[in-house]
């Protein structure tokens, strides 16, 4: 925020002229880019369909109500499967994510030059790919069912848990580690006595947080055949059974709210 | 018992922290290491048990040369050197007892330590040591529930449970109030006497050093500039160690020091952090 | 474990206990064992509910292997046209949806901040946020595809809607956490509501809003790779086709592109956030 000298004396301006010019140009470029992107995107859009959208929406809305409550008795089993996919998937992910996090953390990796980049690549690869895509792949490889869902959730969670956990490991108090190492403890003992107690709260918080997200994600995995309540959603959509779709939406909403509540309670108890 | 020969440390940044330091310490002697911040006191202590790898020179402990030791042998050697830290360095989320028992880790196999099944002798000694430092009422408390002075007592108990020959003590009173500082210094010198332990104690407070030490080593910019009895710390010597200043008050405080008057100088915790920030610092600890 | 370890062993200190047990995490033994039993029971029942068709898995192993090895010989060319088209759709819909979503999220976010909005506006805006956050993008995409037909426009609408919920919630929380003193200081000068928002609220919230926007851009790209599965355009459609036809070489190419773009965008957004602050 420079004070400028000008003919009228000193005047205060938020930014200097050059900076303002650059900022304006930047915004202009962004607007131009967005307009261009919009045109590329809507090249093949059939606007007649779009104009019809409000009527379609009203039509669907009308068909969705009232929900078909009797359908609920067929949803308990898929709901249980959904819970299992999320929970078992999270547990499975922990077995891989914990060692990977230790290999990725700058202060515990055996080799900053070779092992760490490999672990980070694994984490990025897992994080970049949505659990639905993992499920799509696994259904194609292993066939449809719960197993594909559990593995998909696990594969996505490895990156998430691994990243947050290795960041937690990098933030531990090094003097505690030093003190335990100075007693002549072995590497495994230092891990057990100095590092594990320090990352335990973060570890528990991250796990419950991811479990909560996994509950949400596992509700839709069935759309690609990986089990759970999404499978029923897929059937109902294919048969245009909108009242059933409504009930499934309500059940998903309830599950999500419940799992968020549980996760908030558990995290609160830990901290 | 402990002999340092031309011990030298150059950090990766190029800083020469220790310049060929040679000291010999007989069994049972308590040595105070004084000097300004950045003189290399913490580095010297950490080069002895190799929390910091020395660049050159030798460390002899009871006839064993430490700088060339491989992993396993180094761990066995570390058992003989108890270390006490500036900010206590207790594992905050473990109980007091677990912190004290961690002094035995070098003697106990991994599974026993994982299950907290330490040998009966170790457990009874841990109870006895906690009693000695005055903490028998706090055995099952978590370390972060204690006060500063109590935490440092746990740190002392942990070091003693190693059954060491030598104590390496890094600024034990830097985070404590004057009264607690004196109590902690007295406790350390007393247990050294009881068990015939040698000790190297980094200390910022010259008055405390004069009061409790048998011998003083003055360090400046990585070099030993004074080595002698505490009575020899004249104004000239202090100027040589710390630089120009009016030392008369500090010297008078000497034997009958008024602890309340000599507020401890703030010690940068950054120094400890620097060791941790060395790339791969913890990886070394894990090997 | 023997030999040298024993040499410095301690002697038992007479008069002191020789055993010690760490105080358990849950003090009541009954509750503790009930918890163990519950966890064990869940694992048994939960794992039991996973029916695995082992012959199908056995058949899948070579396919899985083919997929893994495809990562070392990805095929960018034979579906090059589809990949290029899908990528175009994904990138354009990510950008436009993020911008549109943020523009909509700002009024909603201000409305969802308790210290700024009147009660009815607050309730309405919170409802929008809750609705948008509760459903997965893919579910919303299904509805939008049903309304406006297949193609990237449905994807654009989906991502915009999801962005509104995400940004508005965090923005509202930020505004609620504002430094009261600065806000009061400007209000004390007699500024109007708009001036007040412009001078007291905006400068405090702006840097974080930029950071959040970049973060959301990142998320939207990842999601744009998914919603194609239900026909909402983007590279997900290409990926879906490739996987359905067991063309793992092309699928691997698409996945590598996604990973690369996510890595680049994470790096760029990290750099920009550092620059903004």
TrEMBL record, chain A:
Record keywords, A-Z: Cell membrane, Membrane, Transmembrane, Transmembrane helix, Transport
Protein location: Cell membrane
GO molecular function, one term: ABC-type phosphonate transporter activity
Membrane topology: Multi-pass membrane protein
Gene Ontology CC: one annotated term: plasma membrane
Source superkingdom: Bacteria
TM ranges: 21-41, 85-105, 132-155, 241-262
UniProt name for this protein: Phosphonate ABC transporter, permease protein PhnE
UniProtKB/TrEMBL annotation, chain B:
ABC transporter domain sequence ranges: 2-246
Keyword Glycosyltransferase tagged: no
Pfam families xref list: ABC_tran
Upper classification of the organism: Bacteria, Pseudomonadati, Pseudomonadota, Betaproteobacteria, Rhodocyclales
Molecular function GO labels: ABC-type phosphonate transporter activity; ATP binding; ATP hydrolysis activity
Keywords: ATP-binding, Cell membrane, Membrane, Nucleotide-binding, Translocase, Transport
GO cellular-component term (any): membrane
InterPro entries cross-referenced by the UniProt entry: AAA+_ATPase, ABC_transporter-like_ATP-bd, ABC_transporter-like_CS, ABC_transpr_PhnC, MetN_ABC_transporter-like, P-loop_NTPase
Provenance organism: Pseudothauera nasutitermitis
Protein name: Phosphonate ABC transporter ATP-binding protein
Gene name in the database record: phnC
Keyword Nucleotide-binding listed: yes
Automatic annotation (TrEMBL), chain C:
Coiled coil: none
Pfam family, one: BPD_transp_1
Cell compartment(s), UniProt: Cell membrane
Keyword Transcription regulation part of the UniProt annotation: no
Broad class of where this protein is predominantly found: membrane
Keyword hit for Electron transport: no
GO MF terms, alphabetically ordered: ABC-type phosphonate transporter activity
Domain ABC transmembrane type-1: 87-269
InterPro entries: MetI-like (IPR000515), MetI-like_sf (IPR035906), PhnE/PtxC (IPR005769)
Keyword entries, A-Z: Cell membrane, Membrane, Transmembrane, Transmembrane helix, Transport
Transmembrane annotation, as ranges: 30-50, 95-117, 138-168, 224-243, 250-268
Entries under NCBIfam families matching the protein: PhnE
Record's protein name: Phosphonate ABC transporter, permease protein PhnE
């Amino acid at each position: 925020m420079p004070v400028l000298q000008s003919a009228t004396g000193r005047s205060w301006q938020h930014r200097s002229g050059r900076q303002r010019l650059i900022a304006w140009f930047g915004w202009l470029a962004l607007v131009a880019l967005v307009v261009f992107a919009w045109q590329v995107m809507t090249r093949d859009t059939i606007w007649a369909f779009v104009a019809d959208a409000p009527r379609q929406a009203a039509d669907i809305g009308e068909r969705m109500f009232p929900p078909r409550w009797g359908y609920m008795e067929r949803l308990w089993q898929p709901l249980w499967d959904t819970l299992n996919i999320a929970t078992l998937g999270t547990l499975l992910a922990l077995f891989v994510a914990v060692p990977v996090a230790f290999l990725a953390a700058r202060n515990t990796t055996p080799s900053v030059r070779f092992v760490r980049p490999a672990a980070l690549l694994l984490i990025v690869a897992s994080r970049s790919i949505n659990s639905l895509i993992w499920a799509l792949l696994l259904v194609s490889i292993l066939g449809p069912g719960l197993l594909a869902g559990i593995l998909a959730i696990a594969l996505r969670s490895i990156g998430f848990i691994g990243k947050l956990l290795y960041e937690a490991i990098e933030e531990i108090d090094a003097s505690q580690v030093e003190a335990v190492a100075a007693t002549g403890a072995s590497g495994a003992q230092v891990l057990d006595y100095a590092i594990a107690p320090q990352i335990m709260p973060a570890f528990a918080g991250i796990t419950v947080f991811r479990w909560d997200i996994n509950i949400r994600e596992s509700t839709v995995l069935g759309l690609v055949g990986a089990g759970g309540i999404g499978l029923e959603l897929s059937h109902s959509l294919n048969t245009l059974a909108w009242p059933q779709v409504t009930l499934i939406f309500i059940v998903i909403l309830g599950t999500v709210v419940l799992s968020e509540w549980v996760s908030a309670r558990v995290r609160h108890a830990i901290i | 018992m402990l002999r340092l020969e031309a011990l030298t440390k150059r950090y990766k940044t190029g800083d020469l922290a220790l310049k060929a330091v040679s000291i010999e310490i007989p069994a049972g002697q308590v040595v105070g290491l004084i000097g300004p911040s950045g003189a290399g006191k913490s580095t010297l202590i950490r080069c002895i048990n190799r929390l910091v790898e020395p660049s050159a020179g030798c460390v002899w402990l009871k006839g064993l040369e430490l700088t060339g030791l491989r992993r396993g042998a180094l761990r066995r050697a570390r058992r003989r050197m108890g270390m006490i830290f500036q900010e206590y360095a207790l594992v905050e989320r473990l109980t007091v007892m677990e912190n004290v028992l961690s002094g035995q880790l070098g003697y106990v196999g991994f599974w026993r330590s994982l299950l907290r099944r330490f040998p009966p002798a170790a457990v009874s000694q841990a109870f006895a040591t906690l009693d000695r430092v005055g903490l028998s009422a706090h055995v099952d408390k978590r370390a972060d529930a204690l006060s500063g002075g109590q935490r440092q007592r746990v740190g002392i108990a942990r070091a003693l449970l190693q059954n060491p020959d030598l104590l390496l003590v890094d600024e034990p009173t830097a985070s404590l109030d004057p009264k607690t500082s004196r109590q902690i210094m007295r406790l350390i010198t007393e247990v050294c006497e009881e068990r015939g332990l040698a000790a190297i104690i980094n200390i910022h407070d010259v008055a405390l050093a004069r009061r409790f030490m048998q011998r003083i080593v003055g360090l400046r910019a990585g070099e030993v500039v004074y080595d002698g009895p505490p009575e020899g710390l004249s104004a000239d010597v202090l100027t040589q160690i710390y630089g120009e200043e009016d030392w008369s008050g500090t010297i008078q405080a000497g034997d009958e020091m008024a602890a309340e008057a000599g507020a401890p100088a703030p010690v940068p915790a950054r120094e400890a952090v620097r060791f941790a920030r060395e790339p791969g610092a913890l990886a070394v600890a894990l090997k | 474990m023997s030999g040298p370890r024993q040499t410095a062993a301690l002697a038992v200190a007479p008069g002191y206990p020789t055993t010690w047990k760490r105080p358990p995490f849950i003090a009541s033994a009954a509750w503790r064992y009930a918890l163990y039993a519950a966890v064990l029971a869940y694992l048994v029942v939960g794992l039991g509910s996973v029916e695995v068709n082992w012959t199908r898995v056995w058949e899948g192993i070579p396919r899985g292997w083919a997929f893994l090895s495809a990562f070392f010989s990805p095929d960018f060319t034979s579906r090059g046209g589809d990949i290029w088209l899908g990528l175009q759709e994904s990138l354009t819909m990510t950008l436009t949806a993020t911008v549109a979503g943020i523009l909509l999220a700002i009024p909603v976010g201000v409305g969802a901040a308790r210290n700024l909005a009147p009660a009815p506006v607050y309730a309405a805006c919170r409802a929008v946020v809750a609705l948008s956050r509760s459903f997965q993008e893919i579910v919303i995409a299904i509805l939008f595809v049903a309304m406006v037909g297949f193609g990237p426009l449905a994807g654009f609408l989906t991502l915009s809607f999801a962005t509104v919920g995400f940004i508005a919630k965090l923005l509202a929380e930020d505004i609620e956490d504002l430094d009261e003193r600065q806000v009061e200081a400007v209000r004390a000068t007699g500024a109007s509501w708009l001036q007040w928002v412009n001078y007291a609220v905006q400068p405090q919230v702006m840097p974080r809003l930029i950071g959040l926007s970049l973060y959301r851009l990142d998320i939207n790209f990842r999601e744009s790779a998914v919603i194609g599965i239900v026909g909402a355009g983007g590279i997900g459609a290409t990926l879906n086709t490739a996987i359905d036809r067991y063309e793992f070489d092309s699928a691997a190419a698409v996945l590598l592109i996604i990973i690369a773009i996510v890595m680049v965008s994470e790096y760029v957004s990290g750099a920009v956030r550092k620059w903004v602050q």
